[in-house]
Amino acid sequence: MRFRAKIVDLACLNHFxxxxxxxxxxxxxxxxxxxxxxxxxxxxxxxxxxxxSMWCELCQGNFFDEFQMEGVAAEHNEIYLExxxxxxxxxxxxxxxxxAVKIKLTNKHxxxxxxxxxxxxxxxxxxxxxxxxxxxxxxxxxxxxxxxPSVPDFDVSIYLPVLKTMKSVVERMKxxxxxxxxxxxxxxxxxxxxxxxxVSVTTHFKDLGNPPWASEDGCQSSAQSRDLESMAEARxxxxxxxxxxxxxxxxxxxxxxxxxxxxxVHFILLHEDVSLQYFIPALA
Amino acid sequence: xxxxxxxxxxxxxxxxxxxxxxxxxxxxxxxAVHFQDHATCFATASGLRVTVEDAKCIQANxxxxxxxxxxxxxxxxxxxxxxNLSVLLDCLTIFGSSSLPGTSTALRMCYRGxxxxxxxxxxxxxxxxxxxxxxxxxxxxxxxxxxxxKVVNKVILQSEGLREAFAELDMTSDVLQITMSPNKPYFRxxxxxxxxxxxxxxxxxxxxxxxxxxxxxxxxxxxxxxxKPSTKALALSCKVSIRTDAQGFLSLQYMIRNExxxxxxxxxxxxxxxxxxxxxx
Lengths: 284, 281
Prior knowledge:
- The complex is a heterodimer.
- By secondary structure, chain A is an alpha+beta fold.
- Chain A folds into two domains: 2-145, Box (Proliferating Cell Nuclear Antigen), CATH 3.70.10.10; 156-216 and 228-281, Proliferating Cell Nuclear Antigen (Box).
- Chain A has five helices and 18 strands.
- Chain A has helices at 10-26, 85-93, 163-176, 222-225, 238-246, and strands spanning 2-7, 30-34, 38-43, 53-59, 66-70, 79-83, 100-106, 112-119, 127-134, 136-137, 156-159, 179-184, 190-195, 199-205, 232-237, 254-260, 264-270, 274-281.
- In chain A, strands 10-6-2-3-4-18-17-16-11 form a nine-stranded antiparallel β-sheet, covered by helices on one side.
- By secondary structure, chain B is of the alpha+beta class.
- The longest helix of chain B is centred in the middle third of the chain and has 9 residues, at 159-167.
- Chain B is elongated, with a radius of gyration of 21 Å.
- The chains are: A alpha+beta, B alpha+beta.
- At the A-B interface, helix 3 and strand 14 of A face helix 2 and strand 9 of B.
- Strand 14 (199-205) of chain A pairs antiparallel with strand 9 of chain B, so a sheet runs across the interface.
């Protein structure tokens, strides 16, 4: 098992750092899956997470100038590591003006990701700052726990409103209630609602648009056959929604959610180089 | 749908109906008196007064005159209700509290009367938020009976001179002592904290002193924890008038100019700290 990678381009480095900051806001511990072409940050829906799950995918070529990976075995050319993304985020904070950042999997006393940051200095030799981030190696037999989640059979799929507005509204609603209802229909309308003994607040978004999902076998999907105006809704933990919205460092090129009434809300945020899927289950 | 985004046409039984193009004109003033969760709202044809009290010794009033609103209609002589001010502020700032130039939240506020909730309709950039906030029986409010004929000492200061002083008040001191006198030190703020006592003097001929009418030397102490929230009003204001009466009751009146240059007032009334007075005897 070997892994070494290097980022030299400052823009790529900053972009990578922002992705890690976002991941760190969404998961205390997660799984990093390395393949020849991609990196994945995965959180599977254990009860300990409150049922949320996350799947974040990056093409290594868009971030790293050098990337060498040798998996556990030839026919399973992948590496699965358990790590605390906040540790990686903190290490990358020191790299804001770095000349280069190298990441390497080491096993001196225990498995670690060694992040070596080369910083500019006034003298001819650079300053090096090295962080050793402890990781857990996930054995092959557990890899099935971390499979890509499938798109649920949703009732409504809708583009999200301007994230900045949605974030402000959810932040305020979080002061007023622990849970929030997201409802949307296939006519591009979405409502965010909270209701308590003290107050009820509903924010109405219109003209959001509904993404066109090609149905796989040509027959009507449940989304298409449903009446355009009728709302699908789910009540979810407002903190989890705020964590998702709060972690967004850059405006995604596409942001949408799929709602399975009373079951789950599936968020998809697409940036040029990164795709993030986040599942928040409905509250009982 | 039982609750429409558009309120009924005029003639419908709203005892209070108001419209405001920029909800910040209301939310920023209300923040200046937000030191307790609950507030009493009092509306008359002249405008809206929002009162917050604590410990039966401090009262803050925010006045937003009818002219600030684009529409302000009160169907009865006066309309009074108690409301959760934290919730009201969260609703008024639902689209965020940062003041980006060019964007503002439009507000419509409607109240049907006793036992009905306060309805807020807020709109920004085509997005509409509807809030329904429960109201309660209004509390009995303190009457400080502070009128201009009973004023013993009065100064008017430019707020910028006091802002730093108030922001840096030694909070380890139990009290803020205010000395006003026709003689030196004229106007003095004092604290007595763990590190020692601190005195800040403003001479009567200071540039910051807009008016000075002190007839008698008075030294009064007020619980610093009660006065600290007034810093919010001070931060927003351009001028503050500080007055005391014969009993040592304090009136702080803040003149606040909003984004459009319109003027609103916030006043704080505070009782002198009786514990200290007794200890001194």
